[in-house]
Specification:
Elements: E1 29-33, E2 43-47, E3 54-55, H1 58-63, E4 71-77, E5 80-85, E6 90-95, E7 100-105, E8 111-117, E9 121-126, E10 131-136, E11 142-147, E12 152-158, E13 161-166, E14 172-177, E15 182-188, E16 192-198, E17 203-209, E18 217-223, E19 228-235, E20 243-247, E21 252-256, E22 260-264, E23 273-276, E24 284-289, E25 296-300, E26 307-313, E27 319-327, E28 329-334
Antiparallel strand pairs: 1-2, 1-28, 2-3, 4-5, 5-6, 6-7, 8-9, 9-10, 10-11, 12-13, 13-14, 14-15, 16-17, 17-18, 18-19, 20-21, 21-22, 22-23, 24-25, 25-26, 26-27
C-alpha cells in the first residue's frame, strides 16, 4: 500500500486546490459533484476513510480546469478512471495515480454511463441520441452504435450479455448481445427503469419512479435465467429519484427514494425495512455501500445550490460521520 504524500498544501486550510500524490488507497472514495446544469461547475471530492482526509476539486487541481458541465459517472478499471461529463458531451480517461487526464473522448450527444465489457471495449448510454455507443477503451473513439428508441440509463453485465435501463416511456430493460451488438430481447416493466444491479445470487434488481404527480418508486426483482419479474413492491415517494446500492456481504439491497429502505436479498418476498429518513433540510440524492465495511454513504444535495455533504451510516442506520462535497453530490465511487 502506498501512503499519500501531500503536494505542500493542507486540504483544510483554504489554500488553492491540491491533490494527494501517488496511488489512491484501496477503499478510498471519489464523489462526483454534478454541479448545476449549464453552469460548468462540476467537481470531484476525494475522501480517505482511513484517516478522514477530504480533498475538494481534485480534478481541477490536477488539470488546471474543472471537469465541465455535470459530472455524471465514473467507472474504474484497474488504475484508470473513465469520467463521463454529461452536458459537456465527453468522457475523460484519467490516470488515477495523479487524477490527470490522459485523453478525452468526444462525439457523444449526452453521455451518461460507460460500462466496460472485456479489456478492449466499453458501452456508453446516452440521454438524447437514441443509441448506445460502443467505444474502444484505449482511445475512446466510437467503434459502433446500437440503435434504440429513446433514453438509455444504467447498464450492467450479466454473464455474457448487457442489461440496460430503457427510459423515455419505454419502460423496459433491454438485453444486448455484444457478440453482434444487437438488442435480442426486452423485459417490460411498469415504470421507466432508473437503476439496475446484480447481486451475488445472480438476481437482478431494478428500480424506477412513476410519472408526476406522485413519483412513487417501483422496485423489481428479476430472475436472470427466465428474464421474468418474480416480485415487485411500490414505495411512497414525492420526487423523481430512485437509486440502488448493494451490500452482498450483509445480504441487503438498499433503495433510495424519498427515504432509504432496504430489502433482504435472500428473502422470497420483498418486504420493506426502513433504514434512515432525511433530517429537516436534508435531501438525499445518491447512495452507495462501501464494499469492505458495509457502511452506507448518502449524498445530501441540500438546496441544489450550496455545497453538499456525504453522510456515512453503519449497517444499523447509526450516523458515523459526514464530510463536505461540492454542489450536488451524485455518484459515489469506491476505489477497489
Amino acid at each position: 500500500m502506498v501512503l499519500l504524500a501531500l503536494l505542500g498544501c493542507n486540504p483544510d486550510d483554504g489554500a488553492p486546490p491540491c491533490v494527494p500524490e501517488g496511488d489512491f488507497q484501496p477503499g478510498s472514495v471519489f464523489v462526483l459533484n454534478e454541479g448545476n446544469f449549464t453552469f460548468g461547475n462540476a467537481s470531484v471530492t476525494y475522501f480517505n476513510p482511513t484517516n478522514g482526509e477530504v480533498w475538494q476539486t481534485i480534478f481541477e487541481a490536477s488539470n488546471g480546469v474543472g471537469p465541465g458541465d455535470v459530472a455524471q459517472s465514473l467507472t474504474i478499471v484497474d488504475q484508470t478512471g473513465y469520467l463521463v461529463v454529461n452536458n459537456s458531451q465527453k468522457i475523460e480517461k484519467i490516470d488515477l495515480n495523479t487524477f490527470t487526464v490522459e485523453l478525452t473522448g468526444t462525439g457523444f450527444n449526452s453521455p451518461r454511463y460507460l460500462l466496460p465489457f472485456g479489456a478492449t471495449f466499453g458501452y456508453v448510454s446516452d440521454l438524447y441520441e437514441d443509441q448506445i455507443y460502443k467505444v474502444r477503451l484505449s482511445s475512446l473513439d466510437i467503434a459502433a452504435t446500437i440503435p434504440v428508441n429513446g433514453w438509455v440509463e444504467k447498464m450492467i453485465v450479466v454473464e455474457d450479455k448487457i442489461w440496460a435501463c430503457h427510459k423515455d416511456g419505454n419502460r423496459e430493460v433491454l438485453i444486448l448481445n455484444p457478440d453482434n451488438d444487437q438488442i435480442e430481447s426486452a423485459i417490460p416493466l411498469g415504470v421507466d427503469p432508473n437503476d439496475i444491479l446484480l447481486d451475488d445470487k445472480n438476481t437482478i434488481w431494478v428500480c424506477g419512479t412513476k410519472e408526476a404527480p406522485d413519483y412513487n418508486t417501483m422496485l423489481y426483482r428479476i430472475d436472470q435465467s427466465s428474464q421474468q419479474v418474480t416480485d415487485s413492491i411500490e414505495i411512497s415517494n414525492d420526487q423523481p429519484i430512485a437509486w440502488l446500492a448493494i451490500d452482498s456481504t450483509n445480504n441487503w439491497v438498499y433503495l433510495l427514494s424519498k427515504t432509504v429502505s432496504r430489502f433482504e436479498i435472500s428473502s422470497p418476498q420483498l418486504i420493506e425495512e426502513p433504514f434512515v429518513a432525511p433530517a429537516t433540510g436534508t435531501r438525499f440524492y445518491s447512495i452507495e455501500v462501501a464494499p469492505n465495511t458495509g457502511e452506507v454513504y448518502l449524498g445530501d444535495a441540500k438546496d441544489y445550490l450550496q455545497e453538499g455533504e456525504v453522510l456515512r451510516c453503519a449497517t444499523d442506520g447509526t450516523l458515523l460521520g459526514s464530510f463536505s462535497t461540492g454542489i450536488i453530490p451524485g455518484r459515489i465511487v469506491f476505489y477497489p
